[in-house]
Amino acid sequence: MGSEIPFGPSRKDVVVFPQTGTWIVEIVEGAEVRLRSGRIGLLSVDVRAPVVRGAFRVSDQQIQLDLELALDQLRTSAFLLQGAARSLVARHHATTLQYRGLGNVTQPWVIQGPATAGDVCVDLTLNVSPWQPGADALGLELIGSANVGTVHLPLPGMGTVEDFSFDVDARLALGTQ
Fold first, then answer.
1. 155 has which bridge partners?
2. I want to staple 112 with a disulfide (CB 3.0 to 4.6 A). Which of 56, 104, 105, 125 is the partner?
């Protein structure tokens, strides 16, 4: 068996991740990515979109994460914001978001790539860490942020946000192919 990549500050907290291989993102309840904006006036936007497809690959040279999110099924914490977010998705023909991030296999794992949804494309950098959701399970924790630039929000009194950025946060379980 090949060598393994240990993560964690102490022996009891170590998550052991096989050095090479391909895993699929388990599409189960809770397999979603959280996108959270900074303050926009009095509000901040907190959106969760389900993952409909995903794969994680580790080779001797690089890591690769492919994700597809169903933006047409997104949920927000507030009814008014959900309608505005879905209107924004429809306006940009962005029913799905596709992301392909690549990075060096050396630790810590950092991947970068385009997140594309409809006519919007944003460069997204993610810090990737192994996560152990169960005794014999492997997963990934994704943390990052991106800046979209100017966004026109379909909310009364909100209008245009000149410097719209958001944070990404997810914990995804992995399975074998």
1. none
2. 125
In this prediction the pTM is 0.77
**Would you say how long the chain is, in residues?**
177
* d(C-alpha 175, C-alpha 107), whole Å: 22
Helix, strand, or coil here: 27? coil
- Tokens found for residue 161: 């946000």
Instruction: Return the residue matching tokens 């942020």.
Output: 145
Strands (E), 43-156: 43-58, 62-70, 75-76, 96-104, 109-117, 120-131, 138-153
Task: Tell which residue, 177, 144, 141, 147, has the closest CA to residue 163.
Answer: 147
**For every one of its 177 residues, what pLDDT tens digit does the chain have, with 9 covering 90 and above?**
344 555 544 444 556 677 789 999 988 666 777 766 655 555 566 677 888 999 999 999 999 999 998 888 877 776 666 666 666 666 667 788 899 999 999 888 999 999 988 888 889 999 999 887 777 778 899 998 877 665 555 555 555 555 566 778 888 989 886
Domains and CATH numbers, the chain: 18-176 (2.40.128.110)
